[in-house]
Amino acid sequence: MIRVSTLIFSIMLALVWNAHARPNMLWSENKKSSLLVTSTPDFSKLAEKLVPAVVYIEVEQKSRKKTQRPKGAPQGQDPFEFFHRFFGEQMPRDHANKGLGTGFVIQKKGLILTNYHVIENADKIEVIFAQKNGSEKKMRAKVLGTAPEYDVALLETQDNANVPIAYLGDSDKVKIGEWVMAIGNPFGLSHSVSVGIISAKERREVMPSGRRGLYDFMQTDASINPGNSGGPLVNIRGEVIGINTAINASGSGIGFAIPINMVKAMLPDLKEKGKFSRSWIGIRIQPLSKELAQSYGLKKTEGALVAEVVPNSPAEKAGIKEGDIVLEFDGKPVRNSSDLPLYASMAGVGKTAKLKIWRNKKKVTSKVTLSGFPEQAQTQPEDAQEEGIELGLTIADITPKLQEEFGLKSKNGALIKAIDPGSAAARSGLQAGDIVLRVNGKETKKARDFAKIAKKAAPGTVLRLQVLRRGSRMFLALRKPAK
Predict the structure, then answer these.
(1) Annotated catalytic residue, options 194, 209, 229, 279
(2) Distance between CA atoms of residues 437 and 443, nearest Å
(3) What 3-state DSSP class applies to 398?
(4) Catalytic: 151?
(5) Range of the domain at 312
(6) Catalytic residue status for 191
(7) pTM above 0.70, yes or no
(8) How many domains is the chain built from?
């Protein structure tokens, strides 16, 4: 009886203790045991279904003379360097460059998707299919269409392949954390599979092999190695949701894939025209720094700052101005400057898009009808920056002597002759040879115009400079030091 009473007392004491302890607990515990448990997919069935639709691509480029990277060319400009870097120089480069990659069949007769960098400059392309009996079938293929800016290419076998196909899924529905499987030919080991999850989406800052492009990668921890490029990234339903494209240069096990929905939008043009007709708005943009955003009266650095409007472009015809900040493109928020070029290029030629713009500290709406991207348009000028007065710089009027010294064509503006290291001007990104065209929207034809505005500015004020550097315009934010 005593033992029972003691047990009851202990239980009551514990309940009282918990009742008093819970309000002060520093953590929360799940009392309902509602832990989500999912079973691991059967990847063997996925592999069995998809591997026959995946091809091993061999390319050959006949050299007219010894191949070597031009002097000063950045890493990655040689389309076959991607392969040589991992396989060494065992292949004689003064006779023929060879490379390898992966692709996958989307039509039974032999339409194949892969990366552009896999087949770039190839004189000969062969695709190898895995057979059910373990043997391989090799066929010649030709390029039907390419979209270099997106690293996409469409191939076709010269004969009817009559092989299984890979079905395309919906990459917009992919969620972070979903299981995926990558299929390819890493290091020449044909038809290998690896599994992982989707780690992130909308990675636009990644540049495979150092190449700039219009990217919107999905990130995965499924192993992607040299030779995997162009292969499919597959969801657990056996649908292709992306084209494996890039590995992280640091070797940290991060891979990237092009969302298949982007590729779907390109396919009709690639097949019929041989290239993707990307649409064009006709502006040069730059990111918004905290200081620039503050100077425009914005609390956040979201948006794309228009640094330059191309003459006779859709943007100019729509009334878009230098200094506008694009906040939204056709209903899509522009969170940073990398969003806008992608949205505009994929919108479609002839599309009329509505832009929400921040101008003169107010939101305005503008409609722009996009045109096709001009072949020879110089739409991506080099960088430009700005300067200040009493800010660690020497400023002067542009004279014939200074024009010759700095290689200038312009005669108007305030020229930055020198920058003091560690000064406010240096921190702003200004360089010697820059020409300040405007300060806070006011024209500066001479050095005294710039000096006058800068002197009137209160300590700690951000000066918004429009500068000209090597023929291109851009905005910079220069903060006047507090006294």
Answers:
(1) 229
(2) 6
(3) coil
(4) yes
(5) 279-372
(6) no
(7) no
(8) 4
